[in-house]
């Protein structure tokens, strides 16, 4: 089995790369690990080291993508968030043999200890995937620490590796190699304007009239080899980045009919329904452009919906 893949055709987040995406601060290319994309600036991405190192404007919100095909996660500005200290295998840490050790007695024998000199790439493709260790017997070499999921050394005494935004990190899991959508499958478009607008360049691009599809359900026409998806929403086709789509996954006739009905009725709202208007005034103002305008008196209120206009 490919060491990067799980049993269900998934890829481990460890060692993921974002081809064609360069860190705007340190210029590492491609970005390894998570990609952090600024929603306030055009074409501005950071690697994890720079993001957690407080590079760029701390008042700007960012999007996080664990892999090129990950669902986008929108994060609050870092200026309002606290950081915690990282502890682990960093320069100065004391280590011993790990579970994947296959280097004979380079370390002087089982149970012997060494000190980490630095963190480095195992090869040109995978940054920060190995460590340089100097052992008690004066031997020094480079060992895997994350490359292809292998761990040659374990920490005996951890050291600090700086600070990071704990609640901006993803839960470790398996991530699909590519988000796949089948023809005639029902999908919902992400409702966040900043997220969709930020992810559309080079994926069908962004036009202001696309505001209409935010949060709506449509039907997949096809998925291109690039991964982009053509979606039919209320009779009009749009090419969208797959990371802004969620599958409705209807598995029964009843649920298929429900998804179809919701797609054709503006999200399932019907005459007589009681609905709550979102309380985020800035978002409401954006979404109302071209859809009746904005009125301060309705923000955050519960409204009786008596007539639905399409």
How would you describe this structure to a colleague?
This protein has 310 residues and is mainly β. Helix content is 10%, strand content 29%. It is built from four helices and 22 strands. The protein has helices at 48-52, 193-199, 253-264, 281-288; strands at 10-12, 17-18, 31-32, 35-38, 45-46, 62-65, 73-75, 84-88, 94-97, 114-120, 130-135, 140-144, 153-157, 159-164, 174-176, 186-189, 217-223, 229-233, 236-240, 245-247, 274-276, 302-304. It has a five-stranded antiparallel β-sheet with strand order 12-11-10-9-13, with no helix packed on it. A five-stranded antiparallel β-sheet has the order 19-18-17-16-20, covered by helices on one side. The termini are far apart. The model is unreliable at 1-14, 251-255 and 299-310 (pLDDT under 50).
């Amino acid at each position: 089995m490919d060491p990067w893949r799980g049993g269900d055709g998934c890829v481990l987040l460890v060692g993921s790369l974002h081809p064609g995406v360069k860190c705007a601060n340190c210029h590492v290319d491609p970005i390894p690990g998570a990609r952090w994309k600024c929603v306030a600036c055009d074409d501005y991405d950071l690697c994890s080291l720079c993001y957690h190192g407080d590079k760029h404007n701390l008042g700007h919100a960012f999007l996080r993508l664990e892999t090129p095909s990950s669902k986008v996660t929108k994060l609050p500005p870092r200026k309002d968030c606290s950081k915690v200290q990282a502890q682990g295998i960093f320069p100065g840490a004391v280590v011993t043999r790990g579970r994947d050790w296959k280097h004979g007695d380079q370390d002087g024998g089982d149970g012997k200890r060494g000190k980490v000199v630095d963190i480095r790439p195992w090869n040109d493709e995978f940054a920060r995937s190995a460590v340089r260790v100097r052992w008690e017997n004066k031997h020094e070499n480079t060992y895997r620490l994350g490359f292809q999921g292998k761990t040659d050394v374990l920490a005996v005494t951890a050291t600090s590796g700086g600070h990071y935004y704990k609640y901006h990190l993803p839960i470790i899991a398996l991530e699909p190699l590519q988000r796949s959508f089948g023809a005639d499958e029902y999908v919902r478009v992400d409702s966040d304007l900043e997220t969709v607008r930020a992810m559309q360049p080079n994926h069908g691009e962004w036009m202001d009239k696309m505001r209409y599809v935010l949060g709506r359900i449509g039907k997949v026409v096809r998925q291109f080899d690039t991964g982009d998806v053509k979606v039919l929403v209320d009779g009009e086709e749009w090419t969208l980045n797959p990371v802004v789509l969620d599958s409705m996954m209807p598995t029964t006739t009843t649920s298929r009919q429900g998804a179809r009905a919701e797609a054709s009725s503006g999200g399932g709202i019907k005459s007589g329904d009681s609905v709550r208007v979102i309380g985020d005034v800035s978002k409401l103002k954006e979404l109302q452009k071209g859809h009746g305008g904005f009125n301060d008196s309705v923000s955050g209120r519960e409204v009786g919906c008596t007539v639905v206009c399409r």
